[in-house]
Write the structure tokens for this entry.
Amino acid sequence: MTYARTAAFFRPRLVYAVCAGVLVWSTWLISLALGRGETDLYGQIVGTDHLAFYTAARLIREGRGADVYNYDIVGPYQSALFPPGVWQDTFEAFRNPPFYALPYTLTAGLPYALSSWFWIIVSLAALVVGVRLLRPEQPWRTVGWAMTFLPVFCVLSYGQNTLLSFAIFAAVFRLLAADRRFLAGFVAGLLWFKPTLLIGLFFWSLLDIRRLWPCWLGVIAGGVVLSAGSWPLIPEVWTAFFENLRVNLTFDNFEQWKMHNPKAFWKLLRPEPLPLVGGVTLQEVLIGLSTLAGIVVFVQLWRRQRNNLPVMFAAAVFLTLWVSPHTLIYEWALAILPAILLWTHAPRHRDAWVVLFALTWAALFVSTDFCQAQLWAERRWLGTESVLLQVSVPVLGWVGWQAACVLIPPEGVVESPDSIGRFSPTETHGSGAGP
């Protein structure tokens, strides 16, 4: 089937995505309404991951910044924030650089539930601001569709910060479109709170160093301002950060069934490493090959579309999500950025986008719970963890490859500039048709 025929099949059925989104949100909100304010109906605290940021900020406000990365202290400290039995024998660790805790000091004096809801509202605002910066044809309709995307729901319900990153990415794109490259890099430097988010932009700038070198200066300047500016305010937190840096950098005890990248896919598919030669495992080889495949596709796209700013920015964000070692379900909320850019700036391919976006939406909607169900079934009936299939990863890999195939014009064909963004016409190096 062609994309046109497949898109014609999908379009009248997109209403099911709206229904699914409404069902997910309604279930969560009803559960919260039936809970105890700070917990839902099942005793889960509101925005659980927010607790890490809230705890770090409270410790700083109390003059105990040296304890922010002392997890032997953090666990009991967090338990004491809630009634008995609500949060016991576990903790949420703050592993970000110290400067990222400072914004949360604004609400750390509030009860946990109020602080969590405040930052949920901030995240919603960041979603709206980011969409507006990307300038789709119908921004509010775009926000509505984004709210049906399960990773966006996960950001808000988990209490995560990915939508803040989304707004930063959107601002970086807008500044690049205005040819403000140093400033774009400086704003991108705000992502130093989670450096893996810079992977795609970093790799793109390496390929296009002659054009994007001011972005490098901006990113470095942004990191220096954040670090040097916060050091006098919280020197003890920075000291503790460096003392625990190695532990935090090597931390890998994530719930793999919540992750959607090649690393998690191959680890789940074969939990026990199979040694090969020189201490290298089959897992590591397969992870490396999958990562290399994403980079090769990105390079091929850059060779043909290097002057196409929206396409390359979209591809850089997707590459980040593909190769990052810690791409959990909520971080795929960033995928709405390439979706908006491609829909807006490559409208001639909208039949393909309908199909590829629908597959991405569906894969991420079901894959996390499907993998968790496999895990539950194996523990119940086999008493162990065996083969787990995270179905989203091969789907996402195929979607990325197909999108690149759509966007790479045949040899000798040049995309007309009427519907796609370009870098500044003052740039003369590179024609967009190859190096």
Summary: Residues 350-381 form the longest helix (32 residues). Residues 416-420, 424-435 have pLDDT under 50 and may be disordered.
